[in-house]
Amino acid sequence: xxxxxxxxxxxxxxxxxxxxxxxxxxxxxxxxxxxxxxxxxxxxxxxxxxxxxxxxxxxxxxxxxxxxxxxxxxxxxxxxxxxxxxxxxxxxxxxxxxxxxxxxxxxxxxxxxxxxxxxxxxxxxxxxxxxxxxxxxxxxxxxxxxxxxxxxxxxxxxxxxxxxxxxxxxxxxxxxxxxxxxxxxxxxxxxxxxxxxxxxxxxxxxxxxxxxxxxxxxxxxxxxxxxxxxxxxxxxxxxxxxxxxxxxxxxxxxxxxxxxxxxxxxxxxxxxxxxxxxxxxxxxxxxx
Amino acid sequence: xxxxxxxxxxxxxxxxxxxxxxxxxxxxxxxxxxxxxxxxxxxxxxxxxxxxxxxxxxxxxxxxxxxxxxxxxxxxxxxxxxxxxxxxxxxxxxxxxxxxxxxxxxxxxxxxxxxxxxxxxxxxxxxxxxxxxxxxxxxxxxxxxxxxxxxxxxxxxxxxxxxxxxxxxxxxxxxxxxxxxxxxxxxxxxxxxxxxxxxxxxxxxxxxxxxxxxxxxxxxxxxxxxxxxxxxxxxxxxxxxxxxxxxxxxxxxxxxxxxxxxxxxxxxxxx
Lengths: 288, 271
Fold this sequence. Notes:
The complex is a heterodimer. By secondary structure, chain A is mainly alpha-helical. Chain A is built from 14 helices and no strands. Chain A folds into 2 domains: 2-50, no CATH class; 62-287, MetI-like fold. In chain A, helix 6 (81-113) runs parallel beside helix 9. The longest helix of chain A is centred in the C-terminal third of the chain and has 39 residues, at 189-227. Chain B has a 6-stranded mixed beta sheet, sandwiched between helices. In chain B, strands 2-1-4-5 form a 4-stranded antiparallel beta sheet, with helices on one face. Chain B has 8 helices and 10 strands. In chain B, helix 3 (108-127) runs antiparallel to helix 4 (129-138) and helix 3 (108-127) runs parallel beside helix 5. In chain B, strand 7 (172-176), helix 6 (184-201) and strand 8 form a beta-alpha-beta unit. Chain B is of the alpha/beta class. The chains are: A mainly alpha, B alpha/beta. The interface between A and B is medium-sized, with 20 and 24 residues.
């Protein structure tokens, strides 16, 4: 990550003349541009609060919000109830994600590799994907209670579909000549799957896993909003009821860290295992 | 590698005029598309012979090659290799496509060993490592064992593909426009290389191509195919001395054969 950030201002030295014709905004190093946009956003936020365009109760300013983030950080370090809520939600997200990855991968292989799966299972999955899955949260709460199980299932429920689709698409993306080559050397179906199609599908599978990482946070939080419990979602709901929006923002910040961490882990694994594909500059993983 | 040369040598001693690969009345129809791709094809390739096949695109030459490789069933007729009918992929057939189709997650050497690994398992592949290294060396890829395909040029990638084809010591090489995706200069160079390899091994080869000079340069015999449905319209012996050099391609005798093939090809197209 830091490589692209550091190299970009140096590389163009050789073509100075052409470069200087580009607008200033396009010429600046990425980190300055990032700070510029981020700072601009904060400025607008502060202005809205300072000019009292919105009531301070409904929209706390950046200082209050960051103060609350630090406040919560101290609480988390000391292991108070925010820490407990964070830990519970983290468990829900991670277990939901693992379940989604496993179920999604297996179904993805079945759907992508067998004609039966394609004909008889995929249509149901597509239909399933069209359901408003969030609406099932109370069902899982009724079935599994208000503990973490109903949230894990909710996270799984929301996150597994992209893994199926991407795994199946990855298997289908295989080069036909490569399949022909495998046939010509007498490879079995299993060998073709394991030695050719699955490695070839890895970039797709990781794309699905990254989507699932973000979706599983959504699933866990929706589960908490609608199914109670002691996680971050429940804390957020209570804080909002008390109109403590600085808390709400701080808690959402920590909530997004769970998803980001999971996403970052997947990006890291992808770079390790899909070493033959150079990440593109605009790829979101290089920024994350 | 010496064992292979002696094996091929003994085959030749057994009867050099013997046909190693025969297509007997091979036809192909694709009923789904109501398409007759091949009219009955009869083709004989002698041991140690290099035969090239040239024809307009869509004339069915790739289809014929796939049938000969056992990758596609013939509708009628049969292919006989080394006295046994070809009914599926065979271990004594080496095949190469227009794209190198190297696996990007495997090093050059691991790609070369892939056919052994698939047929005989990882342990066999490991024990054959030295042979694979030698094959790589023989095409000038001495230092490239541990290099991954994305670091190789198009020509080098095709060399690795050649090695992958040779490592199982096939008795016949089937080449489907192997250098069609390369630039002209690299292609000329690879053709010289292929000739050298085939000479050194006294290999039997059947190659499909779009390029008349390439077909003439490599061949002992050029087979001309016409389209829709594909059938063999002519055969031209190429009696140029070997090893042939790129320099020879500018000479009159070479040009004469190229013109001859071209005229047959045009006639074939009009039929």
